[in-house]
Design brief:
- The structure is a homopentamer of 306-residue chains.
- By secondary structure, chain A is an alpha/beta fold.
- Chain A has 14 helices and 10 strands.
- Chain A has helices spanning 5-12, 19-29, 47-50, 53-57, 66-75, 85-89, 124-129, 146-162, 186-198, 216-225, 232-242, 260-272, 282-285, 289-305, and strands at 40-44, 80-83, 101-104, 106-107, 119-120, 134-139, 166-171, 203-206, 249-253, 277-279.
- In chain A, strands 1-2-3-6-7-8-9-10 form an 8-stranded parallel β-barrel, surrounded by 6 helices.
- In chain A, helix 9 (186-198) runs parallel beside helix 11 (232-242).
- Chain A starts with a helix and ends with a helix.
- The relative contact order of chain A is 0.14.
- The interface between B and D is large, with 50 and 44 residues.
Amino acid sequence: MSFTERVKRILSWYASESPGTQTQIARLLTTGELAGTGKLVILPVDQGFEHGPLRSFGTNMPAHDPLYHFKLALDAKCNAYAAPLGFLEAGAAEFAGQIPLILKLNNSDTLSKVEPCSAVTGSVDDALRLGCVAIGYTIYPGSELRNRMYEDLRELTLEAKAKGLAVIVWSYPRGSGLSKDGETAVDIAAYAAQIACQLGAHIVKIKPPTAHVEQAEAKKVIEKAKIPLATLPERVRYCVQACFGGRRIVIFSGGAAKGTEEVLQEIRDLNAGGAFGSIVGRNAFQRPHDEGVALLKQIIGIYKQG
Amino acid sequence: MSFTERVKRILSWYASESPGTQTQIARLLTTGELAGTGKLVILPVDQGFEHGPLRSFGTNMPAHDPLYHFKLALDAKCNAYAAPLGFLEAGAAEFAGQIPLILKLNNSDTLSKVEPCSAVTGSVDDALRLGCVAIGYTIYPGSELRNRMYEDLRELTLEAKAKGLAVIVWSYPRGSGLSKDGETAVDIAAYAAQIACQLGAHIVKIKPPTAHVEQAEAKKVIEKAKIPLATLPERVRYCVQACFGGRRIVIFSGGAAKGTEEVLQEIRDLNAGGAFGSIVGRNAFQRPHDEGVALLKQIIGIYKQG
Amino acid sequence: MSFTERVKRILSWYASESPGTQTQIARLLTTGELAGTGKLVILPVDQGFEHGPLRSFGTNMPAHDPLYHFKLALDAKCNAYAAPLGFLEAGAAEFAGQIPLILKLNNSDTLSKVEPCSAVTGSVDDALRLGCVAIGYTIYPGSELRNRMYEDLRELTLEAKAKGLAVIVWSYPRGSGLSKDGETAVDIAAYAAQIACQLGAHIVKIKPPTAHVEQAEAKKVIEKAKIPLATLPERVRYCVQACFGGRRIVIFSGGAAKGTEEVLQEIRDLNAGGAFGSIVGRNAFQRPHDEGVALLKQIIGIYKQG
Amino acid sequence: MSFTERVKRILSWYASESPGTQTQIARLLTTGELAGTGKLVILPVDQGFEHGPLRSFGTNMPAHDPLYHFKLALDAKCNAYAAPLGFLEAGAAEFAGQIPLILKLNNSDTLSKVEPCSAVTGSVDDALRLGCVAIGYTIYPGSELRNRMYEDLRELTLEAKAKGLAVIVWSYPRGSGLSKDGETAVDIAAYAAQIACQLGAHIVKIKPPTAHVEQAEAKKVIEKAKIPLATLPERVRYCVQACFGGRRIVIFSGGAAKGTEEVLQEIRDLNAGGAFGSIVGRNAFQRPHDEGVALLKQIIGIYKQG
Amino acid sequence: MSFTERVKRILSWYASESPGTQTQIARLLTTGELAGTGKLVILPVDQGFEHGPLRSFGTNMPAHDPLYHFKLALDAKCNAYAAPLGFLEAGAAEFAGQIPLILKLNNSDTLSKVEPCSAVTGSVDDALRLGCVAIGYTIYPGSELRNRMYEDLRELTLEAKAKGLAVIVWSYPRGSGLSKDGETAVDIAAYAAQIACQLGAHIVKIKPPTAHVEQAEAKKVIEKAKIPLATLPERVRYCVQACFGGRRIVIFSGGAAKGTEEVLQEIRDLNAGGAFGSIVGRNAFQRPHDEGVALLKQIIGIYKQG
């Protein structure tokens, strides 16, 4: 298929990568309802590992079935589906080739209270044998153990790129170096996004930033340069800027499940701020299937307007 | 191109290295406005990782774009451009071959309050595939974790040399072993430079040393041997001496952004003390492009006078 | 240095390669008198191995010294110097960084009468430690042993590209599959060039083709399509076309030593046909140094006119 | 060269080692003024790393130059020269083959106040490419981190022996397990020497022991067995005994710079006690070159008398 | 020991090699009676493998004992002793460090009538564990199987150099590509020497060339350039020239055992022609020990006159 100018433009930002890796990024950008728009809506389901099955799937029993999520992503015409090793293995054969897959390579349970650090629970070779387009990886800037996560990612990234895969990094500020408010502060969100980009990520996922500013030095710069950060669209716009002046794809997470209108208003704000899209998990799979599909389609509809 | 006597002289100090590594050192010494003089002005941009994008680029929005820095280094006719993996990947294809690149292999964010230690965020193979002439690496003498940094560097250095690359070490005293004043004390600066040289660095970068002396034993020697350290040129002269009697290239960082005249006076002092050059980051890219180019050209002009 | 439009255009043909490999191709295109023109004149000296020292250097005794050739290439401002392992090792330290080097990775002596096949006499790691920009490799399409040569090249090419080097293939039709006239026949020359391109070469070297057509099927097509091949410029033009429609660099060998005017006329014809340049060995180094330099400069002058 | 009976005798103690490793021990024993005597005087210069350049070289400026030390060892006809990676790299090509080299593989700076533990700053492969006869390694018995040092040494020793190198261990009691006096106590010195031998060292270096006895149990044994330890020769004699009944080479460090006569008296005592020789650093290189050479020659002269 | 100007000059030809490899070449040049002269007399004993024990040692029974040859080389003060794995293993411990050893890594028996090709019978790691300074390797230019020998050598050379050893190549033209007279023809001898140099050898061993010229093209060049080749000294002079203009060490074999005066006259001719020395095997060890020593000393005496 011939690509749209927008897709060609985005691919040009990754000219240092091999055609193989570029091909995988292109597959993400040319699948589903948003194909060709340069926008992405991805269904991620790592909450079974991160929060446990009861909290994640207890209110929507069929969502315990891994096939449920492949189908949800397909029915909603998402760009991709992301999950840890077990969930992907459980449906990768049945749905082979029907939707781009992203293997979440590290995950952290909530059964231990130590400084946050995810375990590497899958490998690049798993991603190849499951037919994935990308690996996913989470870093926790602000954790005392951040360096270990960065270093593991370094090795996985080198290998993934050598084998023609794309790299998606979830960058979630967390840990003893930050206040609770600081985890979603706009300066920290932008910083976390920047770190992921510097580590070689092709696509970065962050949380929608709040108006809080964590670092005194950042506050000074904001005032001096009069950077507008009062509204969510403004903050999103700066986070996109922080991702290499807009030359890296940055998408936003939806966070905990909430009311439909609340969700959609946030998406409208993200879109207004120039976000490349959203990762929507709990808000999609913690509703009954049809409602989940309907919500995802509304979200996709907003991004489609550009 | 035939080399100047000065370049040949400098290369002779590295006779133990392979012709491949010598070739890369030669590339650094024969590029840009200072080609052939034995002097170096390098543009480093790792602040996005080290200080975050807001503090680094917030006052000069276009500097969020990685291509900005490639162009800045080229327009100012610097000898090289140094950055972490992501920033280099974002422009290496577009600017392939136009300016020598240095891949900063480790980096530290400022989101965690633990004892200072950088994470290894890139690899020697990344440097090869991006066409770099050298790897860059930061050590923090004075940190409790210094040994880990030295040992990681040992492995990267061995690999880099085997693959025909040069090694540049940023040596920044920091950590619980030093007072705040000690971080830039002249005895500590010279010591940090010596450590980098002993670890096998070809080029060492330190901060301009102050007149403070941190160690009592050093104070005794200075008095006994009447080593003149009152002025910055004198202190620079000793730091050059500390780098193997002048047989290793030592360059100086510019530090936080400041006024133009202040910057230039410091460069004149560095040059007067026999510095091999400067690494100028924030003072260059936190100004508008044309002003940044102009300042770099003035700095280069000072070093060109010798 | 900023690149000319021509150099940028040529580099765009190699966009699938890593920035590292593109950097090396760029180095070849931006060195010496022809820097920036997209043209190349390379000095190759593998005749000591291929024909023996007496035949190669007996009429110009100083040419036995490996340093002679580094200096010849430098004095004539060639783009690069190509030689087997021993010749490069003998001068690589002394001339480190002064001229791009190409390590000829396979070579064939003329002491055995068996079917032609070169031995692999160097490695990609040798190329790295000697600071080379490219590996060189000879294939003999027409030899019964051609497949072994193609397969060895496949492995070396994969390794060279992974390590950020360029690949130059000498494609010389030879062996029991061809008549003596067929070795330089225009259809065979174009075929040999195409094979090198298909094997992944970035730069291809062939001999100037004669008007002879070896293959009956080729003859039919030439007549049917009325392809003009009567003159050398016409034949060169077709060979350039055969190299991926002009999207691969193809340069021509000079062959046995001959009179100056004869050499220059051939160069004019090659240039008129759109050749990217020449590899000139015996005609350069079998003359006294000053005459060799003068001839190379005249050749370079012709290509510089474009 | 045919060996003396003494050299043959010493080599017989290392019959379990490969001929390669024995060859390197032999090179140490057959070089310089003491060749053939079974005695060794080695110049070590790791103080640039261990104490910093100011304290080490500030009172003798030319000693900042790494070539100074190669020359000093040569002029004084020492058996070998030992230094960290950087100092050896800086002169190994220029002095290749002129004097046996020992690569100090771990080193510790004095910029951090943590429990003593040296960083591994070089590798066995570095020792091979620099043409060294042996690796050197420091252990700190008494440190909480001693086991890590012993375990790193285990791996380096295994590798060094497999590649035909000799192993020299600096054994310096230090750390929270010992009193300050205990660091040089005779029981501890002998214990530290024993540990080095048990770890597989071919040559052990310790400090001249004092009459202090650190461990109560040791004191009891000394009294019961009436072991004479009142004089330095007596204590040295016991330390030699502690090194496998005299079947391992044990040499002694000179410590901080002091007056010439003081140094020489200590050497006479060491020699009287049966020491195999000395490692003399600061007392040699902190004097002007000619005085350093003269002192080393006097020291060598004492050992030559046997 | 400080080196003579001649030794320093020779080492400068190998500046591309690591200090480790340079150290080994230096050991060859600074051992034995010819130490410092730049000349070499080496005892090689591979005839047990190549010709069988009866032909090799039957006329001098004690020469069956491997220790005999170590002692012979030592007593005659040769620069080195070269032999296959078994012979070296049988004496390497007993003579560790007493004389530089060269491990002949490939050997060919005379029990099969196939096209000549030696088997690889030892490894670089064997050379390290036996304490050798160099590996030795034989190539047969002219053999149909030459390429296999060149390619095996390529790998061994790369490994030997990486591990700090020197490489010595025996280059013996032989096989179906040559007439019997051609095996020692002057053009072929020079060609064979050149091939060894191009393959990366540090030292080349060839047979004394006869006045026969094998190749018609070579004959033409000799006549045209009036190269004097009538006498053995003239032919030796050209072969030295063929080895990179005299920048590689080339030594000559003695061939079958013959009368003392005949041997010495040949050595005088070699020396007059500028040979770097001789490898003398059968003429040394097929005489009784004292006569062998005496002959070697006479040979050494001739080279010592320069």
